[in-house]
Amino acid sequence: MSSLLTPEDALERIVSRVRVLPSEQVQLAAAANRVLAEPARALVDLPPFPSSAMDGFALRAADAPGVLAVVGRVAAGRPAERPLAPGEAMGISTGGVVPEGADTVVPLEIAVDRGDSVEVPDVSYGDNVRRRGGDIACGEVALAAGLELTPTRIAALAACGVSRVSCARVPRVAVLVTGTELRTPPDELREGEIYESNGVMLEAALTRAGAAVDRVGVVSDDAVEHREAIARGLEADVLVTSGGVSVGPHDLVRKVEAELGVEEVFWGIAMRPGKPLAFGVRGDTLVFGLPGNPVSSLVGCLLFVVPALRALQGAADAGWRFLPGLLAAPLRRNAVRDDFVRARSVWGAAGVTLSPVSGQESHMIVRAAAADALVRVPRGEGELPVGATVGYLPL
Ligand SMILES: Nc1nc2c(c(=O)[nH]1)N[C@H]1C(S)=C(S)[C@@H](COP(=O)(O)OP(=O)(O)OC[C@H]3O[C@@H](n4cnc5c(N)ncnc54)[C@H](O)[C@@H]3O)O[C@H]1N2
Ligand code: MOO
């Protein structure tokens, strides 16, 4: 591990080995968090008709101010039965069709409703009328290919009349945990054993990132067990292992993967935690060897596996999505590696401030759990002062 890749180079190498998964048709309601494979077009004008933005009276601006005859009442979904003539007004609800002949809506609060007539003040032409097609016109692209279907985007497509979308298939990810010392709660620990935490963490993080996760199991540091489990894991789109990627005699993952035909693309990244991360490919399967220390595993997953899942689904912006924040405490930089520091974020007048939590060692998952932000301290000289702008990922 003499010359380590920078995190940026590591991510670039990973993304360059990704082959986007084939797409399939998906019901819109089931497409949340997935990535659009083709542009989605509006099937209607939106709004589909000139609609009222207020509860009030529809009229012609040229007739105001004055007293107008009320010749109808329009509700949302119940349009007027005839056009509006000069000198007339119609009661109208928010979302109602502005009747033909009307061009303006006066809100209830500034009109005097006298039942058969209404007194209205001066108005500006077009006030409170939402233009037909003002949001989008029928046939236009509402969302481009490569966009993730956030709740806002799902709503936008539903409003456009779209019921099915084309999305990349959900990536299948196999998670394999290695380590003879690992037990699952509530089993009792024997001398030298600890509770396994990376498997559940990875399943949660990868499910949140849109993967279908298959827990291949927990294997001890034994080559035969490794071989059988890794061979199964290699059937998935992505294999993520935890532990066994360092230099010790019981670190078997890379060796067994090589025997099973995995081409190692790199091993080792100039970052802390997570330095001994390994990445390889076999066919189209991406193979991530995350270090066993729990915080190292978490950081490796967020920085490299999650973007790879986005890239597999054809996301236009698969890369890191660091948000800007201000350091609340000075942090020393390392000359050659990036540090990823766990911090607590607080929103204040100056923006988001980030306070590193106490206990930054890579086995301290409980200390990390007090944090909600992963702060990048870029390699370089000296220290970052209080108030320095840094990038962070929400945890
Ligand atoms: N001589 C060297 N030793 C180590 C180096 C090194 O460069 N030279 N690197 C250290 C770093 S950095 C890390 S990170 C770890 C990574 O080691 P492995 O990926 O081989 O992980 P393990 O040895 O299997 O485990 C490390 C640590 O984490 C605990 N662990 C493992 N899996 C889990 C799990 N699923 N849940 C909870 N805890 C887990 C394990 O018990 C160990 O304590 O190597 C350093 N060593
Ligand atoms: O990176 Mo190890 O990931 O420093 O504990």
Describe the structure concisely for a colleague.
Pfam families: MoCF_biosynth, MoeA_C, MoeA_N. The protein has 395 residues and is of the alpha/beta class.
What does this entry look like structurally?
InterPro entries: MoaB/Mog-like_dom_sf, MoaB/Mog_dom, MoeA-like, MoeA_C_domain_IV, MoeA_C_domain_IV_sf, MoeA_linker/N, MoeA_linker/N_sf. Belongs to the MoeA family. The chain has 395 residues and is of the alpha/beta class. It has four domains: 7-21 and 170-312, Molybdenum Cofactor Biosythetic Enzyme, Chain A (3-Layer(aba) Sandwich); 24-41 and 143-168, Alpha-Beta Complex (Molybdopterin biosynthesis moea protein, domain 2), CATH 3.90.105.10; 51-130, Molybdopterin biosynthesis moeA protein, domain 3 (Beta Complex); 323-394, Beta Barrel (Beta-clip), CATH 2.40.340.10. Helices cover 18% and strands 32% of the residues. It is built from seven helices and 28 strands. The protein has helices spanning 7-16, 151-159, 198-208, 223-233, 253-259, 294-312, 365-368; strands at residues 23-27, 40-41, 51-52, 56-59, 66-74, 88-92, 104-107, 112-113, 117-120, 129-130, 141-143, 164-168, 172-178, 182-183, 194-195, 212-219, 238-242, 263-267, 271-272, 278-282, 285-290, 323-327, 331-332, 338-348, 351-356, 373-377, 383-384, 389-394. A six-stranded mixed sheet has the order 7-4-6-5-9-8, with no helix packed on it. Helix 1 crosses helix 6. The longest helix is centred in the last third of the chain and has 19 residues, at 294-312. The chain is elongated, with a radius of gyration of 29 Å. The protein starts with 6 loop residues before the first helix and ends with a strand. The model has no long low-confidence stretch (mean pLDDT 97). The chain binds ligand LQZAQKY5 and molybdate ion (MOO).
